[in-house]
From TrEMBL:
Superkingdom of source: Eukaryota
Domain RNA polymerase III subunit RPC82-related helix-turn-helix residues, every copy: 9-68
Single GO BP term: DNA-templated transcription
Organism of this sequence: Cephalotrichum gorgonifer
The organism's taxonomic lineage, starting at the top: Eukaryota, Fungi, Dikarya, Ascomycota, Pezizomycotina
Protein name: DNA-directed RNA polymerase III subunit RPC3
Length: 661
């Protein structure tokens, strides 16, 4: 993360709000002055050694600092981890998403880790109220297992989490699943070193070796060796994951969630997986960003196409993202030699229609949100591409079935007006006129519910495939069709939508229309731009100046002679989308900073009321205990706080789309 002035102030404010003034002062010094050693921190923060060491311990515990130990001088250098600090804003969304996608037990583990930082598994078991957790490796008695996790009765949190984490063995099983899903990663001594420093050190070492190599084969072998070492340095925390994957395959989230809360805590002793209690784990924000990106793309498809199609798309994204560890690839590691590694390669990102149907929630009514028209009402020019794809699928199915029981192309794409699928029109009661039934998309006909559900699913996939945003790409015919997602293309379209919304909000519809014209046609002079925009030249000049002040467009002056007179100079306007994408996050950081600063001022105004409602004897009984006057002030403050935080979260979504996804 590139640290700008507003980004550094925002991160400092987040640290101050969550961890207090002492760690925030140290973090602010590291953001402003860069990497520092202990004597420099004593001098620049004005704190005594005891305070500095206490603040550093808090920051390191929550992975907000990098540190490097120089073995020759035996000195430690500290550096601010602004990327992890900025993720404090996304803690709530990460917890909610883990609970939705993976389950409530996993959500509780993630919530505790986000509040505790990186911890040993034994300490995490104690946080859940475990008794005798240190002896978990030495006993597998069923009665001790059920009683190993009991609430103490002193803390409300223990009572709240008791239904989800039933035993120490259940906790180990949940942690093992989260490690396999890459939501958690193992921490060692090298995990607190800045990855960029490690990569630069490896590249410098191989640059010295490459200077002495003359042959092209030797340079190629050296480049492959460097790529392997860079990959090993990045994936050093995945050794336990690979070990767990070799013992048992990665569990499917959909099937596991159907039994969450019952079967999860009652697994047989033969299937229990016990981890080393001294293993230190923490949240892997890179994988969490992948799940957040899937959620954002699902909502994007919901806005563009519809609710049912977006749920199908969400299932596809979940299957495609199983081997995707991060949103943004590093060119140095995932570049020329990525084919040597089997994680996230192109052939692994292909999903068949039958796989999507198997992972899709059975309660989704696939017969909804699909328009149905007769053959005569379909423009053949528009549907030609879909018919060609469907014909390839039908030929493949007929070849497999011998042409006896396979569905024909006409039946697949409603080429006949009397097709059975034409009659699949659900009414308000969820049943059809006639003999067909579409409860939960299970259409009963002569072909059976399974064939009809596959066909309905394919229609939703074709809707995603033929959208102008190119949500899905058809890439094969196996399993009733193979599909993949080109994340670069979809995210480019989503970024353009977000940037258009910002331009329209700042400069209006005319400004948005002018920027779209410049994006489509490139550089244009004022005369050509006025003709294409159908605007008068004075009006156009005023709007273009407004766009230039907002840094949405730029102008290039091309003089016709050496005098450089204004009436002898051509002005070419252009819109640089890449530059705008790089500059917008810093402006959004400034807006988010202002929101949080206003919230801090508002909290200071009602600090007496907030101190009163935070008392243990008042929580949950605010309206009964407080007078109407103070309760109204408290309610107004909560409403204002919700608006400011909601606006900050919306701005964070824009930052994620423009920079992180």
């Amino acid at each position: 993360m590139i640290v700008t002035k507003h980004a550094a102030e925002l991160c400092t404010l987040l640290v101050n709000d969550v961890f207090g003034e002492l760690p925030s002062r140290i973090f602010e010094t590291l953001c402003q002055r860069g990497p520092c050693r202990l004597p420099q921190l004593f001098e620049r923060t004005g704190l005594n050694p005891h305070q500095v060491r206490h603040g550093l311990a808090v920051l390191i515990q929550h992975d907000l600092l990098y540190y490097t130990v120089n073995e020759e001088t035996n000195t430690t250098t500290y550096e601010a981890n602004t990327t992890s600090c900025y993720n404090i804003l996304r803690v709530g969304r990460i917890v909610d998403l883990v609970g939705t996608v993976y389950g409530r037990a996993e959500q509780e583990v993630v919530r505790h880790l986000l509040s505790l930082g990186h911890v040993q598994i034994a300490d995490l078991a104690q946080a859940f109220g475990a008794q005798g957790a240190s002896t978990v490796e030495s006993t597998l008695d069923a009665e001790d297992t059920e009683s190993a996790l009991k609430t103490n009765g002193d803390s409300g949190d223990h009572t709240e989490t008791a239904p989800f984490i039933k035993s120490v063995f259940h906790l180990h099983e949940v942690i093992a699943r989260l490690i396999q899903w890459e939501i958690l990663e193992v921490v060692d001594a090298g995990s607190f070193t800045n990855p960029e420093a490690i990569y630069n050190e490896i590249e410098q070492a191989y640059a010295k070796k490459a200077a002495s190599v003359k042959s092209s084969k030797g340079k190629d072998d050296l480049a492959r060796e460097k790529a392997c070492e860079l990959r090993a340095a990045r994936d050093r925390g995945k050794e336990l994951k690979r070990q767990l994957d070799s013992e048992a395959p990665v569990p499917d989230t959909k099937r596991r969630k159907l039994t969450n809360g019952q079967a999860n805590g009652t697994s047989s002793p033969q299937t229990r997986r016990v981890l080393d209690s001294s293993t230190v784990v923490r949240i892997n924000y890179e994988k969490c960003l992948v799940d957040l990106r899937n959620d954002r793309l699902t909502r994007f498809a919901d806005d563009v196409i519809g609710r049912t199609t977006s749920r199908v798309y969400n299932t596809l994204l979940r299957l495609v993202s199983r081997k995707i560890s991060r949103c943004v690839e590093d060119v140095r590691i995932d570049g020329a030699f990525s084919e040597m590694f089997d994680d996230g390669s192109s052939h692994d990102l292909t999903v068949t229609t039958l796989d999507i149907l198997d992972a899709l929630d059975p309660s989704v009514n696939l017969a909804s949100d699909i328009g149905r028209v007769s053959k005569k009402s379909v423009d053949p020019n528009i549907s030609e591409r879909l018919l060609q794809i469907a014909s390839l699928l039908d030929v493949d199915q007929e070849a497999e079935a011998g042409g006896e029981n396979g569905l024909t192309g006409e039946r697949h794409f409603m080429d006949d007006d009397d097709s059975d699928l034409e009659d699949v029109v659900p009414n308000t009661n969820g049943t059809e006129g006639g003999q067909n039934d579409t409860r939960n998309g299970q259409v009963k006909s002569e072909n059976g519910p399974a064939e009809q559900r596959v066909e309905l699913l394919r229609r939703h996939m074709f809707l995603l495939c033929e959208s102008k945003h190119r949500f899905v790409r058809h890439c094969g015919t196996q399993g009733d069709g193979q599909w993949t997602v080109d994340f670069d293309i979809v995210m480019q379209s989503l970024r353009q939508v977000e940037m258009d919304a910002i331009i329209e909000q700042v400069t209006g519809r005319r400004g948005l229309r002018l920027t779209r014209i410049l994006r489509d046609f490139g550089k244009l002079d004022e005369k050509a731009l006025a003709n294409k925009a159908l605007m008068k030249k004075p009006t156009l000049q005023g709007k273009m100046v407004e766009l230039q002040r907002a840094s949405f467009v730029d102008v290039q002056e091309v003089p016709r002679d050496n005098n450089r007179i204004a009436n002898r100079t051509m002005f070419f306007w252009h819109c640089d989308t890449d530059r705008l994408r790089r500059e917008l996050p810093d402006r959004i950081f400034k807006s988010m900073l202002r929101c949080l600063q206003v919230l801090e001022v508002e909290r200071y105004k009602v600090r007496d009321i907030l101190e009163f409602v935070h008392r243990t004897d008042v929580k949950g009984k605010e309206e009964e205990v407080m007078t109407p006057e103070y309760y109204n002030k408290y309610s107004q403050h909560l409403e204002l706080e919700a608006k400011l935080l909601g606006h900050a979260m919306r701005l964070d979504e824009i930052v994620a789309v423009l920079r992180d996804y």
